[in-house]
User: Fold this.
Amino acid sequence: MRKIAGYVLLLAFVCLWTAGCGGQGEEEESGYQIWYMNQEETRLDYEYRELQAKNTEGLLKEALELLREKPMEGGDKPVLPENVRIESYTIEHNQLYLNFSTEYMDMPKFYEVLCRAALVRTLCQIPEIDYVGFRIMDQPLMDLRGKAVGLMNEEQFIENAGEEINAYRTADLTLYYTNETGDRLVAQRVPLEYNSNISLERLVVERLIAGPPYEDAYPTIPETTKLLSVAVRDGICYVNLDEGFLETGYNVTEGIPVYSIVNSLIRNTDAQKVQISINGETNRIFRESISFDTVFERNEDLIE
Assistant:
């Protein structure tokens, strides 16, 4: 099944994930962003709060307490319902696992996604916490397709700042990065919650540019690369990148950046082939040997 995006819930709400969220001014503020939910339960806002603890566990306890309190300003409310208890938590290798009571599952799905986003965005600011995992009475939190949600960080809630969201979706992507020697592709499963205004094809390419979210894989595309456009027609995905893609970037063999994109798109979308262009031009040569004046197909020989 090539298209993996699952349509889990519809949320018609206005996204306010910009620096202006929570009524912040232009001047830079200090402290931790504690995320809250508006009264209509349609969006999240944050408020800067100072935490007093000096170690990770102390900061975690303070942050969890604040997530149960009302913000100091505005009319927002806490994201955690009063009847939802955190039974226990553990921190292992920069991964925080929260173990909730069964009442967590009583939350409506759209509310649960917002609650989870608020928890992840708040707690991943704490030193030595890079990912958050969710458990219900010691069992992994499952999505509507029966798959474990998995570890999440703040980058896995993807929005278009300032635009109305017509649907909130989840994608369980398999993305191809590279191994340590840069000569083979390695797959990583990357679960994401994202704004449906973002096409799945754009989501795949932008997550490749951002680099692997987990260890044991390495970037394939220079991080300065800009995705100018992406579209699918007649089974071919047309990817238009800027000149940044041609930079030397990382120490990888010539086919790795190209097939990182090609294999990832074909694995996760309805595309059967991929055409890559640079600033709209296909008469370009990549690293003196790969012509973009062609249509690429999936290359399984490069997969480790």
User: Anything to note?
Assistant: The helical segments are 56-67, 109-123, 200-210, 255-268. The mean pLDDT is 83. The first helix runs from residue 56 to 67.
